[in-house]
UniProtKB/TrEMBL annotation:
Biological source species: Arthrobacter woluwensis
Protein name, entry field: ATP-grasp domain-containing protein
Pfam families, A to Z: ATP-grasp_4
PROSITE patterns according to UniProt: ATP_GRASP (PS50975)
Residue span, ATP-grasp domain: 114-305
InterPro entries in alphabetical order: ATP-dep_AA_Ligase, ATP-grasp
Molecular function GO terms recorded: ATP binding; ligase activity; metal ion binding
Keywords: ATP-binding, Ligase, Nucleotide-binding
Higher taxonomy: Bacteria, Bacillati, Actinomycetota, Actinomycetes, Micrococcales
Amino acid sequence: MRFTIYIPTPRGIVLEAARRFGRLSVVPVIQPGQDLSEYGGLEPLFVQDPLDPVEVARAVLARDADGDSRSICLAFGDKSTEVASLVNAALGWDLPGYLDFVTLETFRSKSKLRRVLGVGNPLNVPFAAVSRCDEVVRFVEKIGTQAILKPADGSGSRNIVTLDPGTVSATLSAIDTSWMSQGAVVEQRVVGPEFSVEALSWNGEHSILGVTRKFTSGPPGFIETGHEFPADVSLEVRDALEHATKEILSAAGHLSGLSHTELILDDAGPKLVESHGRPGGDRISDMVGLVRGRSSFELWFDAMLTGRLPVVQESGVTAGVEFLDLTGMKSTDEQWTDRMLSLPGVVEASILLPEAERGEIVSSSTRHSLVVFCGSTDERARIRRAINAANLELK
């Protein structure tokens, strides 16, 4: 049977993956006025707000149905996955265990995810759900070590605060904490390298697509500055990260679909940062495709159509992403892009913010640019150095 899949504002890599399967008919759900050239002749479904599940469901119902095709709404972002979950529930569409709303809400809430995992679970550190400064002060003074305060749901590195027991009250008094009323988590700070794990699940069975090493700016904001896929770690470390990820996914009730789990590795083993019922952003899914030969999305479509997890191929290829600060850039954006694309191994160079909007990088959404590269394991460090050197030359 054919599938008709409705996808809110899909990226090109998603459409490219879907085109590899003759049994998939893709309907992009987009706003009127969007550039249609990127959708390659597909017939979109127009809605004013692709993130309004009621509007999307009504628009789907008004569209002529294909009686020979099974329909499903798919999504690959934090908000869009919940929209797709609600649309599928409203229209009676389902895949086994895909985008369960309760599971997505468990992923969204950092404190709830930690509770279902188990307060005493070694993947957790001491934590507390908080909404007021006095609650934060009591927690930090009680544990007597550095702590991290952050929003209860996804923040894109916004409002992440590092706290010390002796100065916690002064630190909180000096910053805007009004966002805490919407829910926050404070937890013991974990020190160690950061990783994320991409997984594909079907009917409760989890297949690991790979482990990403994440480089950050460090405290206080821990903004991601680069990625390495697959992470250059020992087999023992990789196994520990993969086992931890599968335990977290099962505890959250994630049965089918792509997922992205972030962990910090300290001396005692992996510790949970957060997990999501969608693939990793920041071009991580692209890196999966460069290294494995098939993107995360293509692997998911394969599982959806065959009803089983596909085999994930190993390779000697490695990929990475560098997020570059363009402050003081003397070249034009076009010159910068051309220079980056001329470097061996570089497959994408993108400006994330126009020049007028570039300022201090204080969160993921304020990063200026990114460069994606791939090559052999031996070439990885050289390519990364060449990218950063070229960026400095243009300043």
